[in-house]
Amino acid sequence: MTDNLHLLPPLGLNRTTPSWADPVVQDAIETPPINKEVRAYLSECFFLLPHRVIYCPEHQCVVGMRGYMNVPDPYAEYPMLAIYFAKYRLRKYPFDILRNDITWPEPYVVLNTIMRRLRTHRFLKGNADAASIPDDIRKVIAPNLDIPSGMEGELLEVPYSERKLGANRVMKVFEGQDARLEMERFFDELLGSSHSELYPDSSVIRVVSDYPLRSQADVIVFSEYLRKLWYIEKILVLMNMVPDSVRDRPDLEDPSIVWDLLEDLQRQPVYEPSQNERMTQVAALLKLWPDALEEFQQQRKDCRTFIYSKIRAWLPKKNKVKIYRGTSVLEDGSVKVSLNFTEYSYIKSAYISFRPVSSREAPHHPEKVLATFECRHVTREGSESHEEDAGDAGSSE
Predict the structure, then answer these.
(1) Among 120, 122, 196, 387, which residue carries the largest CB count within 10 Å?
(2) 314 and 345 share a domain?
(3) What is the reported pLDDT for 20?
(4) pTM for this one?
(5) What is the pLDDT of residues 259-301, one digit of tens each?
(6) What is the 3-state secondary structure (H, E, C) of the chain?
(7) Domain boundary at 115, 133, 162, which?
(8) Within a domain: 48
(9) What CA–CA distances, in Å, run from 351 to 55, 247, 302, 357?
């Protein structure tokens, strides 16, 4: 591993100086590229999210796409630990921002977490230098940081494999015997009847309204997650349509282009058929690079977690409903989440969907997020004919 460390780009280059103006800088930049396996190993262990987080030594802070945090003095000598903790926060709390009222752990806790990831990564399996590689990396990121005796097991969180996982996400919703009456009353109070839209079919309730957000910044953040998840879901479907001959294309050598293409797609205000070519290119890259696919699927999970949190915040907290079947996408740019009202046999099916909405004058700046709640339930007149169907509401794909 020590042989590979010299392949990392030198730190501290004056990036304000054009590379063509300084032959010394030009020589430094033209070092051989880092080995692909080593790059994947380091990226997966350190860069928890593709969002950029940088350390600013002049102000002793970390700055990201969503806020900044002042870095405590114990972290000043270990900027990689500060960056890792900032990205860890963004990943664990996708609906939060970087802010200064966050309590920082001791630096050795962050180092322990990184070292655990380094030592358990699949890159080390069968590697002759497996015992020394993590320690070599530690000398680079935290050369003088001591871990107190007995604190080697202190981590930021319990490893994923050791958590007790539930089969379903459970949240609370309203109670009542007449589904139509209760839901109309709830949404009328929460959203305002002027925004409601009801089907003439007495067995279907459909409510359309602006999702209640506190500020325009919340609208932008929510819209970004929705657009990102929408494209991720579409691209993962396209993967099944990519031919195996894509492996022979030399223009798909670098998997890092996945994130550039995804960002370009997200910037588009609405989906257009012309974007299919880019989405197919991303799908081809993911088929070639399993590590990129793994991170891509993790980002889908992060986006889903954020959207599920919005659903929990929206629905009343009484009785139970489960989010199941994951998420799906509609051609109008909506992200749809199916709900299962397990305690109510009269509710046959329900879903919530979200869609960012922009004005024609500013198509790249979402004005609001449109939420649609639809529920099909058993009418009292037709309860006998629908009871068998209602029992299927608990099924899961």
Answers:
(1) 196
(2) yes
(3) 33
(4) 0.47
(5) 788 887 877 766 677 778 888 888 888 888 888 888 888 889 9
(6) CHHHHCCCCCCCCCCCCCHHHCHHHHHHHCCCCCCHHHHHHHHHHHCCCCCCEEEECCCCEEEECCEEEECCHHHCCCHHHHHHHHHHHHHHCCCCCECCCCCCCCHHHHHHHHHHHHHHCHHHCCCCCCCCHHHHHHHHHCCCCCCCCCCCCCCCCCCHHHCCCCCCEEEECCCCCCHHHHHHHHHHHHHCHHHCCCCCCCCEEEEEEECCCCCHHHHHHHHHHHHHHHHHHHHHHHHHHCCHHHHHCHHHCCCCHHHHHHHHHHHCCCCCHHHHHHHHHHHHHHHHCHHHHHHHHHHHHHHHHHHHHHHHHHCCCCCEEEEEEEEEECCCCCEEEEEECCCCCCEEEEEEEEEEEECCCCCCCEEEEEEEEEEEECCCCCHHHHHHHHHHHHCCC
(7) 162
(8) yes
(9) 42, 39, 20, 19
